[in-house]
Amino acid sequence: MGKRRRARELALQILYGMEINKGDLSCVLSGFWKAYPCSEEIQRFATELVTGTYKNLSSIDNLLRKHTDNWDISRLAAVDRNVLRFATYELLFLDDIPPKVTINEAIEIVKNYSTADSGKFVNGILDKIKDEKLNP
To answer: Model's pTM, two decimal places?
Structure first.
């Protein structure tokens, strides 16, 4: 498994945990890295995904609402919702990562941690967001 894939999986765990436990971001991150030590590179990228997603959560969720036709995002599976959130952050703010890579990584992660249909769902939503960013 690549370092960025591992970082994305850890970001999913952190975002998922924050949804359930509602803690202070810096405390959650500090505690997480003590419990799950990893290389500095992985920790740095996962932290960037989590903090960027968290700081832009309102705008990310608004964008997801726009593209999840007839679905309230609170009704989405928690794994799908959080993968969509950090992948949307990547698409919008991390220009050094090709959109295709972000989308493929998100699909693979939800295939491993969510339902069989989640990959298609996540692909459809992220593809709409990518197209909107490229063609505003």
So the answer is: 0.94
